[in-house]
Amino acid sequence: MRVRAAETLGLLRDPGTAVALIALSKDPRETVRRAAIKALGEIETADVPDLLRAALLDESSLVRQQAVLSLGKLQDAQAATDLLPLLDDPDPKMRFVTLRALGQIRSREVVPRITTFLGDSRKELRFAAVEALGSIRAVEAVRPLVAVLRDSDRNLRRAAAEALGAIEDPQTAPPLLLALEDEHWSVRCAAATALGRIRSFKAVPPLLTRLGDDDATVRRAVVAALGEIGDARAARHLTQLLSDPALQPAALEALRRMGAAALPEIERAFGAAAADVRRLIVDLVGKLEDRQGRRLLLAALADDSAQVRAEAALALGDGGFLDAVRPLMDLKASDPSAEVRQAAAMALTKLTPR
Predict the structure, then answer these.
(1) How far is CA 294 from CA 148, 269, 300, in A?
(2) d(CA 35, CA 30)
(3) Which residues of the chain have pLDDT under 50?
(4) Residue of 178, 181, 121, 189 lying closest to 155 (CA atoms)
(5) pLDDT at 9
(6) Any idea which architecture 1-74 has in CATH?
């Protein structure tokens, strides 16, 4: 019953429950103390960090581990000093949760100590150290993390690529480009995402090559990375992907992120695209809210597809393009499609005063 009470109070995340949880944290039963300590990690009040530090001395290893995790969740910077000695604890589970907590606290002062675990004999501790260094985002961790990209374990290589992406240091582009050729798809995927996060223009040609990767997840990650980087050289390749159902959503988002720089290639792709793709292009150009896209939207009012014409009318209205009033009035008066006439009428209500 008391365990359930502590769990329920934790879900509330109400500082007003701290007094009751503190009382439960002193319960003689281990399960109750552990539940209370976990719940206190959800509450930010002045007394909680000190109580959690005291729980680091609890007779139960499970309670001590939970106290470590709760201190990490609170991201109490002062707790880093208290947690560092626990990295020498004989219990590997305690060392593991301490690494996780230090990663959440994000104190750069602990980076050298965490880095030593990259060579630990236990894989789970190496993995926790990689994730912690990525969370802290300290450039001092770049060199040791780059070394992990050559680890024999693919999960560690993937985690290292993700951590390097989180740090966002442009100097990591060369090793990440090598990781883009990794034998395992998850590492290639993480490397592509990381290259997007650091916005490396040098990565664009190798990423374009990876658009032909055998794995669909990697291809989607590459498309997303190209959108993050925003290099117009990729726009033509991205527009070609709009006809691929598997990559279409990612390509649309990448082009949206690229913005006006992609418009010339979008315009070139528009005429040869299928009707459903042309409608998506019109919707995309409308969302860019850039006046350079006005020409394509106006031209789309004469498209063979009623859906494309309707989409163009709505986009012109949403974009506030006053020079579209006359063609929209003509469309409202004479278009054979009721859908298009209705869209034109809706657009005009946004462009003309009542």
Answers:
(1) 49, 16, 10
(2) 9
(3) none
(4) 189
(5) 65
(6) Alpha Horseshoe (1.25)
